[in-house]
Write a structure and sequence with these properties.
Layout: H1 14-17, H2 22-27, H3 34-44, H4 55-68, E1 72-76, H5 82-91, E2 96-101, H6 105-109, H7 112-118, E3 125-129, H8 132-142, E4 151-154, H9 161-171, E5 178-182, H10 196-210, E6 214-219, E7 225-230
Parallel strand pairs: 1-2, 1-4, 2-3, 4-5
Antiparallel strand pairs: 5-7, 6-7
Helix pairs in contact: 4-5, 8-9
Family: Belongs to the class I-like SAM-binding methyltransferase superfamily. Cation-dependent O-methyltransferase family.
InterPro entries: Cation-dep_OMT (IPR050362), SAM-dependent_MTases_sf (IPR029063), SAM_O-MeTrfase (IPR002935)
Keywords: Methyltransferase, S-adenosyl-L-methionine, Transferase
Length: about 230
């Protein structure tokens, strides 16, 4: 059934209607340096490469951060570290990215820190290993992190998405800071009531849509990403 919020029912979203456009979309959108391309290429050869944030998404975040003058970012779920590099480019000289993940093993497998160094952003990145919810709580309670982050990217354990969201609202700067929530379409699993992770994301999507604390928009970039501004 068509959504009452979509006012062009005879024209479905273009990529969905013409999937053959996907290569054109990437060819005419993504602009990579040789080092960025080498990093993504190495990551793509490893297992679980489908879990990596899309190059279109990472590039979009960097653009948003440059446009808003972001200097402090938090990444909840680092994995291979490609998006981390783009966030570090986004904060610029003197900026900082804190990355939270349960392990550094995936970073080490692709020599992420060496790539960050070659890209000139290693000194802007701090990786903290441990439970991400605990890490966010520590930043808030022990490091006076309330309302200090310009950009927060959520892309970790889907069952904890609601907890990440609530902590992100405490940590992001009201008015100007942005929160990006990844995998909001989750390969279509948000429509599958029997898919545990899909249900968790669907529940958060509906919560965000109704949440008067934020202004938000869900975009059909990569696997779906919601961009939020705390009012």
């Amino acid at each position: 059934m068509p959504s009452p919020n979509y006012f062009k029912p005879s024209h479905p979203p273009t990529i969905a209607n013409v999937p053959e456009l996907t290569p054109y979309y990437y060819d005419n959108s993504i602009r990579m340096s040789p080092m960025e391309r080498a990093f993504f290429t190495k990551i793509a050869k490893k297992d679980k490469s489908g879990m990596v944030g899309g190059s279109d998404e990472a590039q979009f975040f960097r653009l948003l951060m440059h446009a808003t003058g972001a200097k402090k970012a938090l990444e909840v779920g680092v994995f291979r570290g490609s998006t981390t590099a783009y966030l570090a480019q986004g904060v610029g000289d003197g900026g900082k990215v804190i990355g939270l993940d349960i392990t550094k093993d995936y970073l080490d497998e692709v020599d992420a820190e060496e790539f960050w160094a070659e890209m000139g952003v290693a000194d802007r990145i701090e990786i903290r290993v441990g439970n991400a919810v605990d890490g966010m709580r520590k930043i808030y309670e022990d490091e006076n992190g309330s309302g200090t982050f310009d950009f927060i990217f959520i892309d970790a354990n889907k069952d904890d998405y609601d907890a990440y969201y609530e902590w992100a609202l405490k940590l992001v700067k009201p008015g100007t800071g942005l929160i990006a929530v990844d995998n909001t379409l989750f390969h279509g699993a948000v429509l599958d009531k029997n898919h545990e992770e899909g249900r968790a994301i669907d529940t958060l999507n509906k919560k965000i849509h109704a949440d008067e604390r934020v202004e938000s928009s869900m975009l059909c970039i990569s696997d779906g990403v919601s961009i939020l501004r705390k009012k």
